[in-house]
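Lecture 7 notes: from sequence to structure.
We start with the chain below.
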Amino acid sequence: MTDKKQWLAAFLKFLESEIQLLKTAAIATYDAATNEESKPENQYDTRALEASYLAGAQAKRVNEIEVVIQLFHTLNFKNFSAHEAIALTALVELKVDGKRGRFLVMPNGGGISCEIAHETTQIVTPSSAMGEAIMGLEVGDVAEFEIGQRVRLCEILSVI
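Predicted structure tokens for the same chain:
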């Protein structure tokens, strides 16, 4: 899918369906944590406590995705030309350690990914190691960044 508007609409639709699934799961998990049947049978029974931790984590994830959805509605998504520097809202195709990948540069939501037309795209932020390395680069440039103890190389293949 090369049309950026279509691609962004598909990503937003995916996020909105994902948030509905997460909200449903969070409610079910909360219900499991607070249900009368979840009362501990003895001091070692931690099912209710574990369910409450899971419900909290799910609610946090819902909040993170809601922030990204809000960004999709408020950011001005720019169409980049072939020789324009990578900046926020760029959709970038990279070759990282020999493998192709597609990334959307956003101010928030790093790590959120979705599959559109059998291709996975992941949000990357300028505060991440990869995001910091590619900001300001153009098609054909090569960057290196470190994750843990490993140095990774990436080549900018396209920017739209």
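Points to note: The chain has two domains: 4-74, 91-159. Strands lie at 91-96, 99-105, 113-116, 119-124, 142-147, 150-159.
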